[in-house]
Write a structure and sequence with these properties.
There is one protein chain. By secondary structure, the protein is an alpha/beta fold. The radius of gyration is 17 Å and the shape is globular. 28% of the residues lie in helices and 27% in strands. The strands form two sheets. An eight-stranded mixed beta sheet has the order 5-4-3-6-1-7-10-9, sandwiched between helices. A two-stranded antiparallel ribbon has the order 2-8. The longest helix is centred in the N-terminal third of the chain and has 17 residues.
């Protein structure tokens, strides 16, 4: 029986590593790394929002407390897991709360048919970037003022699997690329 705790810890660590390796990041990022301003997106790109909905519908979304506060409610047809060490209680029925990214990833992995998307903010992106298997980035051609940024990452560690360009038009103030990066 002396080895039992080590066995449990090893199994828990293996589960956490596997769950963290399932993560996919989703973000819209300006050319200067901006992802937010005053708790909101600093742009309105309807086709990017459609892409976000199509990508995340039916799946788990992991988000930090501030991202949750900017969204303000669960998005229909998606599982919401808030990562926060300070949020006192579950703000809406059906929303799940996790104290760490690792715990949130394990919760998401309990439904293996669902993909697990990290949707913000900076701290969660930074933590997930080390183990994520994919990133779905909408990359704006322009620099935009903001107060929240996507973490720096090495393009050498990733390859573009798919990309689509969307030019600026009467509904989109900025041209942008929708790219899926994989390791």
């Amino acid at each position: 029986m002396k080895d039992w705790p080590a066995t449990v810890d090893r199994a828990a660590n293996e589960a956490a590593v596997a769950a963290l390796g399932r993560l996919e990041l989703v973000a819209a990022v300006a050319a200067n790394g901006t992802i937010g301003r005053s708790g909101q997106l600093p742009w309105h790109l309807p086709d990017d929002l459609k892409h976000f909905k199509a990508l995340t519908l039916g799946h788990a979304m992991l988000m930090g407390r501030r991202t949750w506060e900017s969204v303000g409610k669960p998005l229909p047809g998606r599982r919401t897991i808030i990562v926060s060490g300070t949020l006192a209680g579950i703000p809406f029925p059906g929303v799940e709360l996790a104290p760490s990214l690792e715990t949130a990833a394990i919760l998401a992995a309990k439904c293996p048919e669902q993909r697990a998307f990290v949707v913000g903010g900076t701290g969660l992106y930074t933590a997930a970037l080390r183990t994520a298997r994919a990133m779905h980035l909408t990359e704006l051609d322009s620099m935009v003022d903001g107060d929240t940024w996507f973490p720096q990452w090495s393009r050498a560690d990733w390859r573009v699997e798919t990309e689509t360009f969307h030019p600026a038009d009467d509904r989109h103030a900025f041209g942008f690329w929708m790219r899926k990066y994989v390791r």
